[in-house]
Amino acid sequence: MASDKKMLDRPPSEDPLQCETIEDIGAIEDEATVKRINRKIDRRICIVLGVLYTIAVIDRVNLPLAEGNAYSLLILCFFPFYIAFQPVMTPISRKLRPRRFLSGIVISWGLVMAGHGLVHDWRAMLALRCLLGIFEAGFFSTSVYLISTWYIRSEVATRNAAFYLVGVFFAGFGGVLAYGLSRMDGVGGYAGWRWIFIIEGIITIVGGCLAYILIVDFPEQAAHSWKFLTEEEARIIIERVERDRGDTIIPPFELWPYLANALDWKIWFFAANFGLTSTVTYATAYFMPIILREDMGFSEVATQCLSTPAVAVAAILGQFEAYLSDRFRLRSPFMIFNAALIIIGIILLGFVEVTGVRFFGCFLIVGGANANIPLTLTYQANNIVGQWKRAFCSATLIGAGAVGGIIGSLTFRSQDAPAYRPGLYTCLTAGALVILSVLITTAYFAVSNKRQRQGKLIIEKMDGFRYTH
Q1: How many CB atoms lie within 10 A of CB 32?
Q2: For position 258, what pLDDT does the model report?
Q3: How far is C-alpha 382 from the chain's CA centre?
Q4: Same domain, 275 and 144
Q5: DSSP string, 127-194
Q6: CATH number for the domain including 226?
Q7: Of 41, 160, 304, 449, which is most buried with the most CB atoms under 10 A?
């Protein structure tokens, strides 16, 4: 491929291994200029996508707040469509460009959310949940893919953390918002739960309209995205990414080569990391309020308020770990640490009788799981080469996350109260399997890098490329 040839012809001073940090690449371009351009990108991509993800999370998890405990079927019907439409969404976003694609699907699911509050038949509600799964299928995978195209490998963790954890942090206040909206019961003849969907649907539509103005497209289109970057600034970004991993040149889309990426076993380990971690994040998002209310005896208002501090701790922990991860170019130690936090938290929550200790266990579970999400995204993005492979990986990763959502939504059942042993054992197993998966891939990466340094191996068909682990 053209990009491979270009990498092989690169002089030694531009070896990607030697140009992995802002400091290294900033020595080739002016470091202050690189940081200034990155701040522009952060504002127009990470922050905007983080706000949209906030809306997505609130829209997705407000169903139990609106419907009470009889919501399992409505939760489950969302995921099959969310999973099924993952593989096609990233190529479509490439064709339509992210600004059009993301704003379009956000507006669409906003209309669907508002419709939740207007229907009067459960079958219509099921149909709307299916549509919501289709429209939301393209958001997270496209966002992850878009972020990975703009930054070099040693900058991605902090950006993934900013995008994801901004959304999770502010979505932690979604329960308070939903509780306030439910107080509108009787206004206009609508029940309070209907107003939750209607108002949040309107907010989503407004967010989608703003996204059309604010979101930018891929780096090679940057100079034409509402005068976002100058031609010179766009050139700097493209050249930095090209030196780092050599995949800025995108070949024409071909279906079978795209699907052939599934033959790379590492992709499925990356997906497993995300899916297993998502099992825990979904389980806690859906059922921690139930455990706090029904098992620990907190009131409804206290339950909504007590869920927020755990998410705030997760956001702080995740951003701090992402900073250290980028600074030291390490991913796996932090992922293993977070999985260990999940395991310890589950033990405290499920097998200790003191309420304060159990509540502290909730902090560890929520913190470890949510802090691990951006790291699993980065671990995958750092260790693949090629635009279409990157797109395929984003789809498989988010699809696996949806499978985790199905498991997480089923694992804490009301009939298992008050101990909730099946749910606790499921999350405990998920945390242990993440550790095992990361150890396997990290060992493989370490051996491959050693062979590459000895001149015995070319990794990912790119001369000079080494895995990040």
Answers
A1: 9
A2: 86
A3: 15
A4: no
A5: HHHHHHHHHHHHHHHHHHHHHHHHS-GGGHHHHHHHHHHHHHHHHTTHHHHHHHHHTTTTGGG--HHH
A6: 1.20.1250.20
A7: 160
**DSSP at 42:** I
158-180 burial, b for 16+ CB within 10 Å, e for fewer? bbbbbbbbbbbbbbbbbbebbbe
Domain termination residue (choose one: 219, 245, 271):
245
> What is the value of pTM for the model shown?
0.83
* pLDDT tens-digit series, residues 35-90: 898 998 998 899 899 889 888 877 666 665 555 444 566 767 888 888 888 888 88
- According to the model, what pLDDT value does residue 13 have? 38
Domain of residue 70 covers 12-245
Rounded Cα distance, 57 and 61, in Å: 6
Q: What angle do CA 76, 80, 86 make, to 5 degrees?
A: 135
Cβ proximity of 331 and 378 under 8 Å: yes
Query: At 36, is the secondary structure helix, strand, or coil?
Result: helix
Residue 330 is inside which H or E element, if any?
none
- Has residue 463 been placed in a domain? no
Instruction: Give the chain's domain count.
Output: 2
Whether 229 and 363 map to the same domain: the answer is no
Rounded CA-CA distance 358/168 in Å is 22
Q: What's the CA gap between 231 and 249, in Å, rounded?
A: 17
Count of residues in the chain: 469
Task: Look at 378 and 116; give whichever has higher pLDDT.
Answer: 378
Q: Which two tokens stand for residue 297?
A: 């005896």
Residues 206 and 279 in one domain: no
Chain segment 332-354, per-residue pLDDT in tens: 999 999 999 999 999 998 888 88
Report which secondary-structure segment, H or E, holds 397. helix 387-411
**HSE of 358 in the Cβ direction (CA atoms, 13 Å)?**
15
Scored b (16 or more CB within 10 A) or e, 117-127 reads beeeeeeebbe
pLDDT in tens, 351-372: 888 878 888 998 999 999 999 9
Dihedrals φ, ψ of 148, to 5°? -65, -20
Q: 186 — alpha (psi -120 to 50), left (phi > 0) or beta?
A: left
Residue where one domain finishes, among candidates 196, 212, 245: 245
* Stretch (H or E) spanning 153: none
pLDDT tens across 92-130, in order? 988 898 999 999 999 999 999 999 888 887 778 888 888
Q: At what angle do helices 48-61 and 156-171 cross, to 10 degrees?
A: 40
The answer to whether 259 and 249 have CB atoms below 8 angstroms apart is no
Q: Which residue has the tokens 């071909």?
A: 254
Nearest to 3 by CA among 273, 389, 303: 389
Which amino acid is located at 209 in the chain? C
